[in-house]
Amino acid sequence: MWISKPIYESLPYFYLFAGAVSLVASMYLNHWYWPTICFVVGIASLVAGLVLFLKRRDYRHSDHRQQRPRDE
Question: What does pTM read for this prediction?
Answer without folding.
Answer: 0.77
